[in-house]
Amino acid sequence: MQDTDLNPGLYSVVAFDIDRLPSPADSELSWMVFLALNVERECFIQNKSCQIDPVIHSRFAPCKKRFDHETTVNLFLIKQNRKLSANDFIASGDILRRYGISPLPAIVEYERFRDPRLYEGTPLYGMQYKVMRCSRMATLMHIRQRVDERLGYGAMEAYLHTKSRPYKVYPAIQRIFPQIKVTERMIKYGRDECSYRQEFHLSHFDKHLEPILHEKDCPELEVEALLDWFKSDAGKNGFRRLLLDRINYWLRMLVQESRNFRWIHYLSIEYDRYSDTDLADSIDKQTASDIPQYRIFKKLKTAADSVPAQDVLEESSTEQDEEVEVEGENSSPGISPYMHAVHPSYARAFTRVLYRGTRIMSRLQLLIELYVETFDEFPEFE
């Protein structure tokens, strides 16, 4: 709000919930959801924000029913005749007793705002708003957002979906988890991770796979300590074994996350017993039958009523390996088209497994690059 016509002086900003109090008490008493006193004129005429500290900032009525409910809120700007405090708005005990209402700071007599000792005439501005105060879905969404924030899902999604150029990953590890698309940004982040440096100090753990993307500062990589490995053939072979050990460790982790991914997708399909038509519609009617992953999970769906047979999973894995491209179209960052078929109940599980898998694949790529650069050969996996 900006108004250069306002006279110098102090102003009050007040908002009433006119549906809060029962009739006939609402003819004399009001429920204030907001009251700011002694706001200077400059706050309304300057082009920059102005901090207003409310004297009263109460809540709307609690939700006691199982359906949504609207509240009408009237907002006013009134010019004061003098400096005011919260004590000027204490409701009369006689009026409260007359209506059987307990005294609360938010309950105020309308008459106080007509008192010429306090205010100069009628409000200068007024607006009326409809507030949805009992939206069950909004409440559940707010709770879910708070939980997601605490669990780091926002950070996971930012990591997975921030736009960046694709990074060419070694086909040997891309085939293990073909749905993952590594980007240059992910590799850069992986190279800067403190936990990546700790790979070379025999301090191994995978806690960093949790979505905490801002690690504490750690010492720079001790280059001299690494060079000590190469002062003898025994040391060089020891460093080779160290790298192979770490590569194989992260390979096992990647295989596990790939299995988790396929299993969650299978459960997602079975959750509502999608028909083939429904699944195709949820992906793309025109192209679903041409998507290799659709055929794989269509096969999984019809293989068993509960847990898919081991030979089906193995066959699916083989078919994936044959049809995945790690160069060309499939090298672009993003999620495979059939991800749109994921049931919402499993969306967070998918986000988590994709996040962990991508972090692991980036770490593997860096370790293998280091191995190839150091020993001029590709490592032999377990």
Q: How would you describe the overall organization of this protein?
A:
This protein is 42% helix and 11% strand. It has helices at 42-45, 93-99, 136-151, 153-161, 171-174, 184-192, 194-198, 223-228, 233-271, 276-283, 292-303, 310-323, 347-375, and strands spanning 10-17, 29-40, 70-79, 107-109, 125-132. Strands 4-2-1-3-5 form a five-stranded antiparallel beta sheet. Helix 4 packs across helix 13 (347-375) and helix 9 runs antiparallel to helix 13 (347-375). It is elongated, with a radius of gyration of 32 Å.
Helical percentage: 40-55%
What is the global morphology? elongated
> What's the helix count?
13
Radius of gyration: 32 Å
Spatial order of the strands in the main sheet? 4-2-1-3-5
- Mean pLDDT, to the nearest integer, reads 75
How would you summarize what this structure contains?
By secondary structure, the chain is an alpha+beta fold.
Features:
382 residues; alpha+beta; Phosphatidylethanolamine-binding Protein; 2 domains; five-stranded antiparallel beta sheet; 13 helices; 5 strands; 11% strand
List the helices and strands and how they pair.
Layout: E1 10-17, E2 29-40, H1 42-45, E3 70-79, H2 93-99, E4 107-109, E5 125-132, H3 136-151, H4 153-161, H5 171-174, H6 184-192, H7 194-198, H8 223-228, H9 233-271, H10 276-283, H11 292-303, H12 310-323, H13 347-375
Antiparallel strand pairs: 1-2, 1-3, 2-4, 3-5
